[in-house]
Design brief:
- This protein is of the alpha+beta class and 136 residues long.
- The chain has a single domain, classed as Alpha-Beta Complex (Ribosomal Protein L22, Chain A), CATH 3.90.470.
- It is 46% helix and 29% strand.
- The chain has a 3-stranded antiparallel beta sheet with strand order 1-5-2. The chain has a two-stranded antiparallel sheet with strand order 3-4.
- Helix 3 packs antiparallel against helix 4.
- It is flat and about 65 Å long.
Length: 136
């Protein structure tokens, strides 16, 4: 690795130490379906977002709920105190495409149809309202 790349990688690592996030990788649902759930809670207060996810009928909502609880726990661990109601907000959430498993399905006249089993990666950032105002 070159010197310039190494310096930028170290800066990125230092920046992540002040951020509170959780990652969920290789989720076996399509990114399109997961983005619907991510769009529902983007920018919400965490307790309200947990309620929305709990009562959502989508299968991906359960996975995102568990991820959000993990991000809250990471915030509490780094700040060494419990999160109070109305204090934490979801600052960023994004869904990236993961690896695609390619399968073949028998089709008429000796042909084969391709099936793509998609997966995704979800990254969720939480932060308190006061920290958001300081950064802007």
């Amino acid at each position: 690795m070159g010197a310039r790349k190494k310096i930028s990688a170290e800066k990125r690592k230092e920046a992540f130490k002040t951020m509170y996030f959780a990652k969920l990788q290789n989720v076996p649902t399509s990114p399109r379906k997961m983005r619907l759930v991510a769009d529902m809670i983007r920018g919400m207060e965490v307790n309200r977002a947990l309620g929305v996810l709990k009562f959502s009928s989508k299968e991906a909502a359960g996975r995102v709920e568990k991820l959000l609880r993990s991000a809250i726990a990471n915030w509490e661990l780094k700040n060494e105190r419990k999160a109070e109601s109305g204090e934490l907000f979801i600052t960023k959430i994004f869904v990236d495409g993961g690896a695609t498993l390619k399968r073949m399905r028998p089709a008429p006249q000796g042909r084969g149809y391709r099936i793509r089993k998609r997966s995704n990666h979800v990254t969720l950032f939480v932060d308190s309202k006061s920290n958001n105002e300081d950064q802007n």
